[in-house]
Design a protein that fits this description.
This is DUF7507 domain-containing protein. InterPro entries: Chlamydia_OmcB, DUF11_rpt, DUF7507, Ig-like_fold. It comes from Nitratireductor indicus C115. By secondary structure, the chain is mostly beta strands. It has four domains: 34 residues, no CATH class; 109 residues, Immunoglobulin-like (Sandwich), CATH 2.60.40; 113 residues, Sandwich (Immunoglobulin-like), CATH 2.60.40; 32 residues, no CATH class. Helices cover 6% and strands 54% of the residues.
């Protein structure tokens, strides 16, 4: 018997020659040889395993644009022949590593190749990132042997929105007095406070008519202060109160599984003080009344007074 070597299996064949010799009755030598060839089944195969991990570099518990997803690759020779020039291809990531010169049957390489990928906003909005890599190598007969593997990582999405409402008194007639016809101009600053894109953003305010919007989309960290505005005309009740209190609400829609997610909202209150200038004037007039009509002022005649009171 003969114990096979890996070189034999890689070659796919074992050739062997035997010789026989003996002595004839006349004492002469008798010899012969015979060869045998055994064909060996070669089964080249590779298995690729890929893993992905999101690196939360700022430690905020959420996925942010530019944070890396790191990939590791394990290549196993699951066949019975040596595979050479083992190489991983992954066009979607930045790959590090060089071809593995040789990988014996049963051997695994988990250190030669690594990869990194910077997250995009589209990845975060989608809630996950997936990627497929391919490994290839050469069998002893120069044929290609390959495998592919995918890896995905879930990305934590946090939807949040903020609203800051401002109000500015406008002395419409320029008389320096708060009166009817004057107005309050309202501004609205909307901020995306989460890590996912918000869409269909609207500001509502039951106290005024809001102009502008809806805002089609707002990226994380971005503030919009120009889309929404409102103008409110003062009433006498406002002036008497010395202020105008008002509240507004903003709502936006985050991405969700297969479509849109649950809307997020925020509110903001603002109080605009109004200067009150209470003033009153009194005009008094007096008229002599000749009660007895004698044309002479005498006892019993009167003076009639009238008063005009004006809220100035």
């Amino acid at each position: 018997s003969y114990p096979l070597t890996q070189a034999d299996i890689d070659a796919g064949v074992v050739d062997n020659t035997a010789g026989v010799s003996g002595t004839a009755p006349d004492n002469g030598p008798v010899t012969d040889t015979a060869s045998a060839t055994a064909q060996l089944a070669r089964v080249p195969a590779l298995r690729l395993t890929k893993t992905a991990i999101h690196q939360d570099t700022n430690g905020n518990g959420a996925a942010d644009v530019g944070e890396p997803v790191t990939f590791t690759f394990s290549v196993t020779n699951t066949g019975n022949v040596t595979v050479t020039n083992v190489e991983i291809e992954d066009p979607g990531v930045t790959l590090s590593g060089s071809p593995i010169a040789s990988l014996a049957p049963g051997a695994t390489d988990s250190s030669t190749y690594t990869a990194s990928y910077p997250l995009t906003q589209d990845d975060i909005d989608a809630g996950s990132m997936s990627n497929t890599a391919r490994v290839k190598g050469s069998a002893p007969d120069s044929s290609e042997v390959s495998d592919s593997a995918s890896a995905s990582v879930s990305l934590a999405g946090t939807a949040g929105i903020g609203l800051v409402k401002s109000g500015t008194y406008q002395d419409t007639n320029g008389n320096g007095v708060v009166d009817l016809g004057d107005a309050i101009a309202y501004g609205f600053s909307v901020e995306n406070q989460g890590n996912v894109t918000l869409t269909d953003i609207e500001v509502t305010d039951p106290g005024v008519s809001v102009s502008g919007g809806p805002l089609a989309s707002l990226a994380p960290g971005v503030t919009d202060s120009t889309t929404f505005s409102a103008l409110y005309m003062l009433t006498q009740a406002d002036i008497d109160a010395g202020k105008v209190d008002n509240s507004a609400e903003v709502e936006g829609v985050p991405p969700g599984n297969g479509g849109t997610g649950t809307p997020v909202s925020a509110s903001s209150d603002v109080s605009v003080p109004l200067e009150r200038k209470p003033a009153i004037s009194l005009t008094k007039t007096g008229a002599y009344v000749d009660a007895n009509g004698n044309g002479v002022a005498d006892a019993g005649d009167t003076i009639s007074y009238s008063f005009v009171v004006t809220n100035t």
